[in-house]
Amino acid sequence: MNAQAASEWNLEIQRRRTVLLDHLLLTAIVGGVVAMVSLYIAMPPAMSVMERLVEMAPFLAGWLVTLIARAWRGLGYRPRALILLSLTYVLGIVIFARGGLPG
């Protein structure tokens, strides 16, 4: 295998990684909209609109950061992947903290 063939493989791997990350970010954006609408509808009717938005604030912020990471293509693969992973981790902690940690 010569250096040019290795370079082509490297470029193809990087391209596929970027495409996969773009698809994951798009899935997070679409899934986030569906989840936030479902959460808004499932909240008790006695809550005011402002109370509902305060409850949804971490998820709205995470969704906006994900939207920015998807739109900002010049950011690079690693920072965008780090944003996606850290948001997943932080929002998972928020969900478990609000819902009570089972077990």
Query: Got a strand count?
Result: 0
Estimate percent helicity. over 70%
Largest sheet: none
Strand portion: under 5%
Rounded to an integer in angstroms, the radius of gyration calculated over CA atoms is 18 Å
Helix tally equals 3
Task: Give the tally of structural domains.
Answer: 1
Notes on the structure:
The structure is a single chain. Helix 2 (49-71) packs antiparallel against helix 3 (77-99). This protein has one domain (3-99). The protein is elongated, with a radius of gyration of 18 Å. The chain is mostly helical and 103 residues long. It has helices at residues 3-42, 49-71, 77-99. The model has no long low-confidence stretch (mean pLDDT 89). The longest helix has 40 residues, at 3-42. Helix content is 83%, strand content 0%.
Secondary structure elements and pairings:
Layout: H1 3-42, H2 49-71, H3 77-99
Helix pairs in contact: 1-2, 1-3, 2-3
What is this entry, summarized?
Helices cover 83% and strands 0% of the residues.
